[in-house]
Each structure stands twice: as structure tokens, then as C-alpha cells.
Amino acid sequence: MTSAAVGFQCPDCIKAGRKETRSGLAAYGGKRSSNPMLTTYVLIAINALVWLAIRATGSYGWVERLLALLPQDSLWSKTLVVDGVSGGAWWQVLTSAFTHVELWHVGMNMLALYMLGPAVENVMGRWHFLTVYLTAALTGSAVVMWLGDPNVQTVGASGAIYGLLGALLVIALRHKGETRQLWTLILINVAITAAGYSFISWQAHLGGFIGGAAATAIIALAPRANRARWQWAGVAGLLVLIVVSIGVRALMLQVVGGPLIG
Hints:
Blueprint: E1 2-3, E2 8-9, H1 11-17, H2 38-57, H3 62-66, H4 92-95, H5 103-124, H6 126-147, H7 158-174, H8 180-195, H9 202-221, H10 227-256
Antiparallel strand pairs: 1-2
């Protein structure tokens, strides 16, 4: 890895990002971002505003219904019971990725996003970057619903952020670059997840990493002929699989009559 104005960049990702500057395209098609930090700043701002809204309102009312997936015995959720995805609150599979309760949680996640986001957008362009980020967030929710405890609800952007790690790994492998430092970073994050398994959702991390890597592979490996068509068809297919898996799991939770999960 090499130092950059924001966070870090891998040398091979930089080469990929410069690959099609002649035409103003990003490495895998699509328009190159004139400011690859802008989308990251917007995402950070959204997460920060949601956190401030939760703290300012005590998480009651519209904030809790739309955004906050909190344990029912938490400080911020003592009287209002909110249905999860299996209870019809389908939006929570994405809004949970923009929701934080504790300052340390939002701070750590936004620092990671600040470091990783511009590197990915610099290579892939804005819309591909957002596609990877949101797909990773959705996949993280899907894996939480399947492998997590139905009694526990999860919040945080870490699944989407792990998706950016998966994206950088796919990009580096795609260009046969040096990946040792990237693997070291991934292993450090795995160790942190393992050390904090009692309060960290490894399911969201695993799902996010897989989703981000899969979406990036579809975008990066699409054939040049009709590339955009192949990319969006592939991503659409991936999203259909994820949404269907979420729907199936939600129906299963309804049938067994277990606790609702966000």
C-alpha cells in the first residue's frame, strides 16, 4: 500500500484507475469520478446525520421505525416495539447499514469508510462504487438473517465497509498485483471481529465481504463487448438472489413464530 491524501491506495489499484483516462472512463467502464472523495463524504454525512437524529430523539418515533434496529432492552428502546424485516419492515435490510447508536461505533466505521471509499471509487467510478457498497450492505443483512440469532438485531455500516475490502482484493487480483499488505489488513479486521464476537456481527462482516467481492468481480470481469449490459445484468441477477434469500428467510421466521429480526 502507498499513502494518499485520504487513507491509502494499493499501487495496482492506482494503475487500474489510470487505465482508461484517455477516454475519461473508469477502469471498468462508466464515467470517471472527478472527485473520488465526494461519494464517501456524502455517505459519511448520511451516517452522521442519522446518528445525530437517533441521539437527539432518543430513537423514538419515525427514527426508530425507519432506521434504528435496536435490541428491545437497550437504553434507547424501552417502550416502543418495532417490527423487523419479517414483520414487514422490509426497508431495514438497507437502513440498518446507515444506523449507529454509539459514538465509538459510528466513529470507527466512518474512519474505515474514509480510508477505503475513495480508493475504490477512484478505480471503479461513482456508480459502480455505490453499487458495490449497497450490494455489500444488502448481502450483509441477508447473511445476518440466515446465520444470526433471531433474537438479536444488528446495526452499522461495517458490512458495507467489508464489501470495500472485498472489492479492493478483487481489483488487485484482477490485475495480478501484490496483495500481501491487503491480506494483512483483512486478517487484522478478521482478528478484531473474532475478538469482539460477543458484540460484533461476524455475519454482517462475512456477508458484506462476499457481496462486495461478488459485485466487483461481475463489474471487473465483464467482457468489453457490451460491457455495461453484462455488468448491470450480472449485478441485477445477484441482487435478485439476495432479495429472494431475504424474503425466504423472513417467511420462515413468520412461520416458526420466532422473534422478529431487522
